[in-house]
């Protein structure tokens, strides 16, 4: 397998689809759908996608530990998504101003991965620091445009 495929499949395509997701989330909010209804519809479709994936891909065995981590990930995602939807619905914030800020989530992932998962030895600290400065600068620049 070409080494580019994992980056396209696990990075480029999700970024594209999550970018589109933000647009439809904004459209949902401007169509008078509150964050609770948004989360219900969003969650139902995610559950259906999981069922379809289980039919298409050969699923791995279910473990209590794996299910627990998945549930925590889902709860974190739901809280974040719900807060975004609430801000879009209640305050009418432009999605183009929020997206650069919530896209800084990579910094949280990097920090937790480095400290808790012990991945710090796998990253170049100077590049990581430079990238962090660029990400924060870019988010501030784009969100204030």
UniProtKB/TrEMBL annotation:
Keywords on record: Membrane, Transmembrane, Transmembrane helix
Organism superkingdom: Bacteria
Species annotation: Rhizobium anhuiense
Transmembrane regions: 6-24, 36-57, 69-91, 98-118, 124-142
The protein's name: EamA domain-containing protein
